[in-house]
């Protein structure tokens, strides 16, 4: 997609205006990549969300939790020239990686992550335009600053662009 790949790890986020860049995160299982994009300003951002709720840990410099990480990513987008009304959102991940007898809802972290993220997006009045979530397999995603395309890769499956 692009010449420069900026890799983000679990709980990290990145915002870029460099049209030769794609933001990538690997190994999304129950974690969710939240990708914000302003197509006019060509500002893209991605957060690798690990858990739904911060519970007072207040880790200021990362995006580990949906309830604190998504707003931090949103604020960073605005600081980099994005207009709130133009920002669209794509998400990927949130898989159910383990099946346990009895189906404990505590193990449904992927589903809980997706629910928490969509709730925060609603509070921020951000429009979710595409999603590749759930199922039982991990994903690697690459988000293009130039086009806003999100390429989703999974072992043994064809590449999807959303």
From TrEMBL:
InterPro entries associated with the record: CheD-like_sf (IPR038592), Chemorcpt_Glu_NH3ase_CheD (IPR005659), Cytotoxic_necrot_fac-like_cat (IPR011324)
EC number(s) given by UniProt: 3.5.1.44
Alphabetically ordered keywords of this record: Chemotaxis, Hydrolase
EC class: hydrolase
GO biological process terms, semicolon-separated: chemotaxis
Gene Ontology terms, MF aspect: protein-glutamine glutaminase activity
Catalytic activity, reaction form: L-glutaminyl-[protein] + H2O = L-glutamyl-[protein] + NH4(+)
Pfam families: CheD
Family in the record: Belongs to the CheD family.
Function: Probably deamidates glutamine residues to glutamate on methyl-accepting chemotaxis receptors (MCPs), playing an important role in chemotaxis.
PANTHER family to which the protein is assigned, alphabetical: CHEMORECEPTOR GLUTAMINE DEAMIDASE CHED-RELATED
Name listed for the protein in its UniProt record: Probable chemoreceptor glutamine deamidase CheD
Organism in which the protein naturally occurs: Candidatus Aquicultor primus
Gene assigned in the entry: cheD
